[in-house]
Amino acid sequence: xxxxxxxxxxxxxxxxxxxxxxxxxxxxxxxxxxxxxxxxxxxxxxxxxxxxxxxxxxxxxxxxxxxxxxxxxxxxxxxxxxxxxxxxxxxxxxxxxxxxxxxxxxxxxxxxxxxxxxxxxxxxxxxxxxxxxxxxxxxxxxxxxxxxxxxxxxxxxxxxxxxxxxxxxxxxxxxxxxxxxxxxxxxxxxxxxxxxxxxxxxxxxxxxxxxxxxxxxxxxxxxxxxxxxxxxxxxxxxxxxxxxxxxxxxxxxxxxxxxxxxxxxxx
Length: 267
Hints:
Blueprint: E1 2-9, E2 19-24, E3 27-34, H1 39-52, H2 62-81, E4 88-89, E5 91-99, E6 102-110, E7 114-119, E8 122-125, H3 132-138, H4 144-147, E9 160-161, E10 169-174, E11 180-184, H5 186-189, H6 194-203, H7 207-220, E12 227-234, E13 252-253
Parallel strand pairs: 10-13
Antiparallel strand pairs: 1-12, 2-3, 3-4, 3-5, 4-9, 5-6, 6-10, 7-8, 7-11, 11-12
């Protein structure tokens, strides 16, 4: 069981808010649209619509997420072919999953919106950006500090739509009582440093006050992009003694801890 809160803001430089989000159990997602001429706004909304059908279910499986993504891609491609420009969107977030009576987080990511976990005082970036600067970091050509101001930081390498065929990444790991999941568009992470994000998550117990504070920080820092923030707090976790999840599905990173932080993240 979770408590959750969400906030979104167009920022100070954009006429439209092309972000869309869903924060209703068991689905917590942010989509950051792109394409101009309302194409991005429609693309992000179309993706969220496909996942909204799962609201109210106790838990989802990987096949549910894949099915929704397949439908979402078709919807966004239809937008592009019907005269709305090169419609596209990122997608990042978590869904609640259950494995052998244990509560799990199933994370999905495509693009450069991000999903973090805050637990035991540590902020960990679960998702890995699909972006040019992330590839340069992994090749050793850029440091995470240089990536923050690099002029290529907004160029993504995978999306839903926008002529991209790249697959989503998935991670699954056990939920723990007290986990705090943060899902956001890059309108937050491009303006607010991880140290400040960690501070707010650590000191403010009310998830609504967290998302409001982080959104206000991003606006105050310049608000150069649309800003969307979701916080999900695990308040009750179903679990029982037994073996942790084991699977031969190569699409899931089965570490019981999230992957090392990506660009700008905290290790």
